[in-house]
Specification:
Layout lengths: L5 E2 L40 H18 L1 E2 L3 E3 L3 E11 L2 E10 L5 E4 L5 E3 L2 E9 L3 E4 L4 E10 L6 E13 L4 H10 L11 E13 L5 E2 L7 E4 L4 E9 L4 E9 L2 H5 L8 E8 L6 E7 L5 E2 L5 E12 L5 E9 L10 E6 L1
Antiparallel strand pairs: 1-18, 2-4, 3-4, 4-5, 5-10, 6-9, 6-11, 7-8, 7-11, 8-10, 11-12, 13-15, 14-15, 15-16, 16-20, 17-21, 18-20, 19-20, 21-22
Length: 341
């Protein structure tokens, strides 16, 4: 089965990586940990007050999950002080303060490929001042990393690690910072000397979240639709994400192929909150190359989606089937079913 990453809703990570435009000379205050999930409705957005209230309640839930950390990692050039972390259901969030111990302006660089949790890489991640930072001599800055693991980690003791390189950019500090902010700075190409390779390592206890399911005792939910049967086989939501899986079941293979999820005309799904509040920030869906034959001889398109970042926890999710006709979505073809959590 070929897996196709397909955006369900917004593909923009909540709080994308922010780079400093100039060398950091003094400590900047780090927003509260729960502000990663802060959502402010745009002007004129529908159900804005409902969204604000739901988001505020959700951020209180996140704050209650946050754990303090007193871990300190020190190298020749840097001192890292872990501040707070959250580790729930394969999602981790860590804040820390980093201090330049040298008399040089330094450039810290890393990437998602050098972040791991007990050896497991990250699937979707981001942060603030975590992967590209210029620090003036003796200065400090706060940073944050957040991400969802590529594979499952059983609840228990683990360790977040982030490997990074530290370069001396004293000769061209301002230029290095400006280029770093644009994502175009290469210390190697600029001939900056490597001071050290170091690692931030913070032990964390991964906990199991409180998972709510719309499936009573795990039994699939079914609805008869026009030309197919909709079967929801997974609808689970924890404090930090949600997973959905469904089947569109047809009487024959030909019938399934005549109603594909891609092409000039196709169907897809949208996840909405029944009260109108915005709740999904980032989600991705997976589709097979072709329909599969079920045990009863019918054929099905099997679709799944995972919500990586959300801004509230709705009690009822509306699963909306939409149809794209080549000139946009045909709103008259929308079909909704409700999932009660």
């Amino acid at each position: 089965m070929k897996t196709m990453m397909k955006a369900l809703l917004s593909l923009t990570l909540l709080l994308a990586v922010a780079l400093c435009a100039l060398p950091v000379h003094a400590e900047d205050s780090l927003p509260p940990l729960s502000d990663l999930f802060l959502y402010e409705p745009s002007e004129g957005e529908e159900n804005a007050e409902t969204t604000r209230a739901a988001n505020a309640a959700y951020r209180e839930t996140i704050d209650a999950l946050a754990q303090p950390s007193d871990v300190v990692c020190e190298s020749e050039a840097l001192r890292f002080e872990a501040l707070q972390y959250l580790a729930v259901d394969d999602f981790t969030l860590l804040t820390w303060r980093v201090t330049n111990l040298t008399d040089k302006t330094v450039f810290l660089t890393t990437s998602e490929f050098y972040a791991a949790f007990s050896g497991i890489e990250y699937d979707v991640c981001g942060g603030w001042r975590w992967d590209s930072l210029v620090l003036a001599p003796g200065s400090s800055a706060d940073a944050r990393f957040h991400g969802t693991l590529w594979s499952h980690f059983e609840p228990g003791e683990g360790e977040f690690t982030l490997d990074m390189k530290v370069y001396d950019v004293s000769q061209d500090a301002e230029e290095a910072a400006e280029m770093a902010a644009l994502g175009t700075f290469s210390p190697v190409e600029s001939g900056c000397p490597l001071l050290e390779e170091t690692r931030l390592a913070v032990p964390m206890t991964m906990t199991a979240g409180i998972v709510r399911s719309a499936l009573k005792d795990g039994a699939p939910l079914e609805w008869e639709m026009d030309g197919y049967t909709l079967r929801v086989t997974q609808a689970e939501m924890s404090e930090v994400g949600a997973r959905f899986a469904l089947e569109r079941i047809y009487a024959s293979r030909d019938a399934a192929l005549a109603d594909p999820p891609d092409g000039d005309t196709f169907w897809d799904y949208e996840l909405l909150s029944a009260d109108g509040a915005k709740w999904v920030s980032t989600a991705y869906g997976n589709l097979p190359d072709a329909p599969v034959e079920l045990e009863d001889g019918r054929w099905a398109w099997q679709y799944s989606t995972r919500v990586y970042y959300m801004v509230c926890q709705p009690e009822t999710v509306v699963l909306r089937a939409r149809r794209f006709t080549g000139n946009g979505y045909d709103e008259s073809a929308n079909v909704d079913v409700e999932l009660q959590f």
